[in-house]
Amino acid sequence: MIRFSSIVLFVVASALTGNLFADNAMLQNPVADRILVDKSDRRLMLLKDGVVLRSFDVSLGLSPKGPKRQEGDFKTPEGVYSLEAKNKTSDFFLSIKISYPEQSDRRRADQLGVHPGGQIMIHGQPNEPKHPVASYKGRDWTDGCIAVSNGDMVDIWLMTEVGTTIEIQP
């Protein structure tokens, strides 16, 4: 009980003096300078200076093998992209837009005579699930996006910035 009281006293004192969260590096999330997604392992890794800061389980498009070629193929793209925008009000719990399609993706789609698709995001769970919440965990279910748990999405949101490079590997 004394230990708990000491912790409460520390938090209150720190909050009152403005030191809580302001200068405490342990409570601040470092910002990643690169994101690596390994589709075969279903992992998203946040890196800084080549060191993995955090690693997360992901769900991918319903047809995850191979690169995205066209709209509606349910594949998650492969290649090097960047984070374009953050959206707090998406249909999913937070979303971060990935720069797919890049010029090479558009050229390939043109050669195939198809539309490359777009709106590829990293996002949390649906705000209005169509299935039981448990059915989204541990299986691929998106239209081509990279999905994580809502808790993991908060961490990714806080630890990334628009413009960060994301590499999606097979």
Based on DSSP secondary structure assignment, what is the total number of beta strands?
8
Rg, rounded, reads 19 Å
- What is the spatial order of strands in the main beta sheet? 3-2-1-8-4-5-6-7
The amount of beta strand, in percent, is: 15-25%
The secondary-structure class comes to alpha+beta
Q: Give the number of domains.
A: 2
**Main sheet?**
8 strands, mixed
* CATH topology label of the largest domain: L,D-transpeptidase catalytic domain-like
CATH architecture of the largest domain: Beta Barrel
Return the average pLDDT rounded to an integer.
87
Characterization of the model:
With 170 residues, the protein is an alpha+beta fold. It has 2 domains: 1-30, no CATH class; 31-169, L,D-transpeptidase catalytic domain-like, CATH 2.40.440.10. The protein is built from 3 helices and 8 strands; from the N terminus they run H-E-E-E-E-E-H-E-E-H-E. The chain has helices spanning 2-17, 103-112, 150-159, and strands spanning 34-38, 43-48, 51-57, 79-87, 95-98, 121-123, 146-147, 165-169. The protein has an 8-stranded mixed sheet, with helices on one face. The longest helix has 16 residues, at 2-17. It is globular, with a radius of gyration of 19 Å. The model is unreliable at 1-26 (pLDDT under 50).
